[in-house]
Amino acid sequence: MSNPLPNRRFCVAPMMDWTDPFCRYFHRLMSKHTWLYTEMVTTGALIHGDRDRFLRFDPAEHPVALQLGGSDPKELARCARMAEDYGYDEVNLNVGCPSDRVQNNMIGACLMAHPTRVAECMDAMQQKTQLPVTIKHRLGIDDLDSQERLLEFVDTIQAQGCRTFIIHARKAILKGLSPKENRDIPPLQYERVYAIKQAFPELEVIINGGIKTLEESAEHLQQVDGVMIGREAYQNPYPLLSEVDQRLYGDNSPILSRIEVAEAFLPFLQQQLAKSIPLYAVTKHLLGLFHGQRGGKQFRRHLSENGHAKEAGLQVFLDALSYVRPSPITQD
């Protein structure tokens, strides 16, 4: 683990309600090299809604990718152009979300049954942007989950010029399981993702699903080109993100302590509060920073119980930090 693995990618997955700009800024304080992804944004939200609210991000977040949800080639192409105009480093198409809400609009995992449509979308997006256009998908859906179908799906998409495939190593069961159940119940099948890399060695294949440690990441990186971690990176971010630059990228920059990360977040927090953004909306992403540490439960409790108040300000966060700050050394 001490030697960096060249040309490899470590990513934090796009997660609805979690990987917003506040979360991504926090994550960037711990790792300079990790790829960060937005929550999925639908084409309709960008075309008909408050575009700036969905697309703005802090320059410190680079490298950062915009994940889009949609199935209309022209709309996706238009939104891919927006991603470039706003300065993103990549645009990614969501073909993995199993939610009923998005299925009804032909968004997410249901598109795996329509590889030609997906290929048309990818082609249209690439025609409108110079950014890398990538895809995130499952092994399959319902009974359309054979390895042969997966190979055909990847082949159809790569024929349109897509070079990066982020593969969640589970199929999605759209008929009978909730989105939450789809994150746990279908079994992980990492070897099927490895087989895609073996069949298409020229492609960048990034594996996702159930990965929790840098040790596991390094094992996967013997077989594929990248690793994407979701819930663990959000709920217990420090062990992963504080060391990934050194252990996977060979960067010898100093590792900040947990309290140093929190203190580095303070100027950003003050900026957001000055914009009248509620305290908890910004700081909820830090609840897992002191996971398993002395005072960590009190930190979370104080922030959770007091951060929602309308008048909650910086002092609430500073008071929460008082539970995890090292005690001063005293001499008799």
UniProtKB/TrEMBL annotation:
FMN binds at P14, M15, M16, Q67, K136, H168, N208, G209, G210, G230, R231. Keywords: Flavoprotein, FMN, NADP, Nucleotide-binding, Oxidoreductase, RNA-binding, tRNA processing, tRNA-binding. Pfam families: Dus. Its cofactor is FMN. The active site is at C97. One of its GO terms (molecular function) is tRNA-dihydrouridine20a synthase activity. The keyword rRNA-binding does not apply. The keyword Zinc does not apply. Gene3D superfamilies: 1.20.120.1460, Aldolase class I. InterPro entries: Aldolase_TIM, DUS-like_FMN-bd, DUS_fam, DusA, tRNA_hU_synthase_CS. It catalyses: 5,6-dihydrouridine(20) in tRNA + NAD(+) = uridine(20) in tRNA + NADH + H(+); 5,6-dihydrouridine(20a) in tRNA + NADP(+) = uridine(20a) in tRNA + NADPH + H(+); 5,6-dihydrouridine(20) in tRNA + NADP(+) = uridine(20) in tRNA + NADPH + H(+); 5,6-dihydrouridine(20a) in tRNA + NAD(+) = uridine(20a) in tRNA + NADH + H(+). It is an enzyme of class 1 (oxidoreductase). Residues 12-314 form the DUS-like FMN-binding domain. Its EC number is 1.3.1.91. The record marks N94, K180, R183, R300 as: Interacts with tRNA. NCBIfam families: PRK11815.1, yjbN. Belongs to the dus family. Catalyzes the synthesis of 5,6-dihydrouridine (D), a modified base found in the D-loop of most tRNAs, via the reduction of the C5-C6 double bond in target uridines. Specifically modifies U20 and U20a in tRNAs. This is tRNA-dihydrouridine(20/20a) synthase.
